[in-house]
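Subgroup meeting minutes
Present: P.N., E.W., G.H.
Scribe: E.W.

1. P.N. recapped why we're keeping a running log of single-chain structure predictions: easier to compare across weeks, and new members can see raw inputs and outputs side by side.
2. G.H. added today's entry (275 aa).
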Amino acid sequence: MKILYQGSPGAYSHLAANELYPDAEIVACKTFDECFKRAEEDKNLKIIIPESNRITGNIGIEYLIFKHRLNVYAEHFHRIEHNLLALPGSKLKDIKNVYSHAQALSQCSEFIKKNNISENVRADTAGSAELISKNQNKNDAAIASKLSAQIYKLDIIASNIENEKGNVTRFLIMGKNILQPEFGKGKFITSFLFKLKSKPAALYQSLGGFAINGVNLTKLQSYPEKNSFSSYFFLCDLDGHIEDSKVQKSLEELGLHCEDFHVLGVFQADKFRND
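Output recorded in log:
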């Protein structure tokens, strides 16, 4: 099995992939676009993509979900523990500049402000650690994982520096093939996207079926259609399996109001949801 992720070795996506698929071949891609494109072209590949963070919200990959419409096989909630990494021998008092992904900088804003460190946005966390290792400037540091410290031979000069300790990112495992678990015992998530017909109160009317049938929506996110701010796609998750009669009735009602509707996947709910 081959798993693709975005970022440099040591990225949190790399950690999540290792946790889920310890025996798989795990391959880094430079961009999210590359991950999605390669998975669309090769049905034997899977990708692991960060979708949202408990503290800072959506990661911003919705447009790629709409564009490529890969199947969602699973979700995985991964605890994010941010660390300040610097050259061996560096002390916290030496650090003047910190480099990392915008999300990581935001999630560690209190620590950065307290220590009067200047922020520098980079494409990813592990790539920032690699930059520190290459530049060899003791005044620079990166916010990244412990794995990044090991890979790039950096010291961890401050651990768990995130603003909130319950920092968790939700990852989606996706691919070209259509796979779904059989309907039975257990908790399931059905993920789908839709575009409504252009008419007044369309969203309000389209969601009535879920209320009538007692189906819980756990995610409802709008995203503008390409080159438009008057036409929107919606990305949804609901509690339940698509073969459940209540879910089927709800989606049938929704379909009456849609120009476009596509099921992204049905998968087991991660046990983290029970915590």
